[in-house]
Amino acid sequence: MRDSDETGGGPAVPFEFFSRDGTPLRGFSRPGPGEALVLVHGVAMDRRIWAESGFLDTVPDARVIALDLRGRGESGRVGTAEGHAVDRYVEDVRAVLDGFGLARYSLFGTYFGGRIALRVAGVDARVARAFSFCAHAERVEIPDEAVEEEAVAVEGPGGHTYLREHFTGRGAPPWMIDACSRVDPAELGAATRGLRYGSEQQTERGRPDQELVLITAEGDPDMAPFHAGERRLGARLWLLPAPTRVRAAAHLADAGHRVAKTLAAGGTGPGVV
Ligand SMILES: CC(C)[C@@H]1NC(=O)[C@@H]2CCCN2C(=O)C/N=C(\N[C@H](C(=O)N[C@@H](Cc2ccccc2)C(=O)N[C@H](CC(=O)O)C2=N[C@H](C(=O)O)CS2)C(C)C)[C@H](C(C)C)NC1=O
């Protein structure tokens, strides 16, 4: 669908590719003279967050590719927790990289989408840069009970209310709260339980010249894993003027402006001499 407000004005071209397990992946690409920038949304989101957060308007020169992860937006439904394992998401993103057939991409992901972007960077040499918005690359303990509780909460009839109240209470911006109500509750429950399949693992750098950027709130109470990423992966750390990661979502467009400058300074996109 040529839904220009979806891409902040430029002509959006829909795409459809198939993940390794056959799941259809749909999204849009927006032409641009610069680097190919693949956008990966978080758990209770879809590809519309990029226009609605204002991020898309901040990268006018990038060639933008935005997918709906499996179970979200217009991509194929999955239904099982195993089908939402982190490696399935890695396959989703890599299927889109295969589909566009370019030699080099930058990735930008929000929250769990950032975790996925870092994981793709770790296994795919086509990734020249990976930006992770409010998620780090270190090993985490997945709190099984809290995850199960949350899966039960989000897959039930009150699932959207649970998330809307949770995010409103934590000061999330409208685009993030609106996104929750677009996600199918059954897929949300499966995606939440899917965190138990591999999302705890730390990620490595995929190639020595890869540029990794971790982004979080300057008030983030748990900065340790972000500093660990600086040391262990040589990642850069960008801080946004917000007290928490959820509140940092209101500054997603600010991060986009820095991404645009970084891509332009990289000077390696086509048409940049
Ligand atoms: C606050 C609450 C509404 C929120 N629930 C969601 O939003 C969605 C919808 C339903 C499930 N949801 C998850 O996310 C899973 N639930 C959680 N995940 C933990 C977590 O830390 N997740 C990281 C990413 C990550 C994942 C796996 C491994 C490493 C990192 C993260 O970034 N969390 C922030 C919130 C924050 O930083 O405080 C957000 N994530 C959302 C997203 O990824 O789209 C947008 S905000 C893991 C360790 C179990 C926690 C936990 C209490 C169960 N609940 C949430 O987080």
Automatic annotation (TrEMBL):
Protein name: Alpha/beta fold hydrolase
Pfam family, one: Abhydrolase_1
UniProt GO MF annotations: hydrolase activity
Keyword Hydrolase: yes
Origin: domain of life: Bacteria
InterPro entries per record: AB_hydrolase_1, AB_hydrolase_fold
SUPFAM superfamilies, per database record: alpha/beta-Hydrolases (SSF53474)
Manganese among keywords: no
Domain AB hydrolase-1: 36-137
Keyword entries, A-Z: Hydrolase
Annotated Gene3D superfamilies: alpha/beta hydrolase
